[in-house]
Structure formats: structure tokens, C-alpha cells
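Try this one yourself first.
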């Protein structure tokens, strides 16, 4: 009689553990993995944005910013959604600014010649927009998470131009 009660209690404990494991521990584990992966990607995108802004500040001005865009597409860090940056689904916006001599305010910069010592802006702003975190959500048929835009502004550091030699880095 005592053995039968003990067996029933062991079976009940096993069933309770299985329910808790399936209902709490497994979802919690996958949730932690998902949030960790998303934070890893977030950090990677922030670092990419800062790196691209440093590149734009130290290389010559091009009206279409193609040199900066190509740099971004070839220097994407290893992460799960790396292809969104390489293929252009996550967009990069580059804006150059010049200082207005009268007011001292930054205004949008434009110049007729690209990569010229005579054509150097004062500041640059780089933004990564339209990035959606999709990695784990595709399997679950859930909507992707749209990450807010990342923006970095830096003063131009010579734009890669050497006035002595009259040349600039592309």
C-alpha cells in the first residue's frame, strides 16, 4: 500500500516537472536567447554606424556619398541580419554640412566638384534607417521588429585631403 502511494507521488512529481519545463523553462530559455541576439545585433549596428561616420569624416566629400555607402556595405560586422546591410534593405543616409560664415550655424553642404581640396564640408551626419530584426521571428511567422534609426554626427577631420599635395582620399 505504501509503495503504491510512493509511486503515484513520483509520477505526479514527474508530470509537474514536465509541465513546468515545457510551459516555463523552455519559453524562458528561448526568450533569453532571442533578447540576447537582438541586443548583439543592436550593438553591432551602433558600432557600424560609428565606424561609417568616422570613415565619412576622414575621406573626401562626394555628392552622392557613394564612397561611404560602399564602405558600409563591405565592412558590415558579423551578425545574423548582415545581408540587409550588404544588399541595401537597411539604408544609409549621409548628410554633409558646412558652417554659414554669417550665423555660424550648420547648413546643408553642396559643392560642384567631388574629392577636391577646395570642397571640404565642416561636419557629417550618418544615419542607418529601415533596419528590421527578422532572424528568429521568421520561423514563428511573427512580424519583424523595426529598430529605430541610428544617427552619428562628427566634425570633418580633413576629409582625407592634404592641401600641401592637393589630393584627397576617395
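Now uncover the answer:
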Amino acid at each position: 500500500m505504501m509503495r503504491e502511494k510512493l509511486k503515484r507521488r513520483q509520477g505526479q512529481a514527474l508530470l509537474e516537472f514536465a509541465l513546468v519545463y515545457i510551459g516555463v523553462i523552455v519559453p524562458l530559455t528561448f526568450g533569453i536567447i532571442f533578447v540576447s541576439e537582438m541586443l548583439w545585433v543592436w550593438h553591432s549596428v551602433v558600432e557600424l554606424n560609428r565606424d561609417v561616420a568616422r570613415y565619412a569624416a576622414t575621406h573626401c566629400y562626394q555628392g552622392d556619398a557613394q564612397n561611404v555607402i560602399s564602405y558600409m556595405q563591405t565592412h558590415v560586422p558579423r551578425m545574423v541580419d548582415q545581408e540587409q546591410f550588404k544588399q541595401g534593405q537597411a539604408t544609409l543616409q549621409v548628410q554633409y554640412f558646412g558652417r554659414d560664415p554669417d550665423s555660424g550655424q550648420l547648413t546643408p553642404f553642396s559643392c560642384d566638384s567631388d574629392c577636391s581640396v577646395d570642397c571640404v564640408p565642416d561636419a557629417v551626419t550618418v544615419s542607418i534607417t529601415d533596419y528590421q530584426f527578422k532572424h528568429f521571428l521568421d520561423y514563428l511567422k511573427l512580424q519583424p521588429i523595426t529598430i529605430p534609426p541610428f544617427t552619428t554626427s562628427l566634425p570633418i577631420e580633413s576629409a582625407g585631403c592634404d592641401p600641401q599635395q592637393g589630393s584627397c582620399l576617395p
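Discussion: The mean pLDDT is 83. The chain has three helices and eight strands.
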